[in-house]
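Our platform keeps sequence and structure together, in a single record for each protein. Because each token names a local backbone shape, the row as a whole describes the fold. One such record is reproduced below, unchanged from the form in which we store it:
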Amino acid sequence: MPTLHLDILVIDTHDSRTLGIADISTYATTPSAPTITITVPGFNPLPIPFVPNNFNVFNSATLGLSSAGVYNPIPDGIYYLKYSIAPANVNFVNKTFMRVENLQQKFDEAFMKLDMMECDYAIKKQQKVELNSIYYFIQGSIAAANNCAVETSNKLYNQASKMLDHFITNGCNCSGNNYFNNY
């Protein structure tokens, strides 16, 4: 007979307006009062009904960030999740993760503007190195959040955002010299 083991998994929806959470728990019996409490960065914790053994998708309206029928982008940042079933003070699991969907969307747009057929190999290579560095900071932010290093996660996120804004605004100011000098 299976024993109770609560666990949830954050699933990337590739949409800045949604947050996907799957229930990957095992239950000995049908769970009672399944609830997920989601703390969006800068907002109070919000308990929301949760469908067990299913993939649950939340948006700005279900998270209390907008009115019903309005689907705005959900903020990036550190999210705290607590999934519980009755009795909630005994049967629960906590998860922390760094949401970077809005930053990733901005990164994707910058990447798609990169002219892959640029004739000047050194400039093109330098732009790729710059974007790889930004991507490294984004992944570092996620890794830090996954390991409960909140301050480090936020610093890496902010650095990636700053670098990406500079890249988009200035086209990285690539001369090609950085690539030749360092690579």
In short: The longest helix spans residues 121-146. The helical segments are 101-113, 121-146, 150-170, 177-182. Residues 176-183 have pLDDT under 50 and may be disordered.
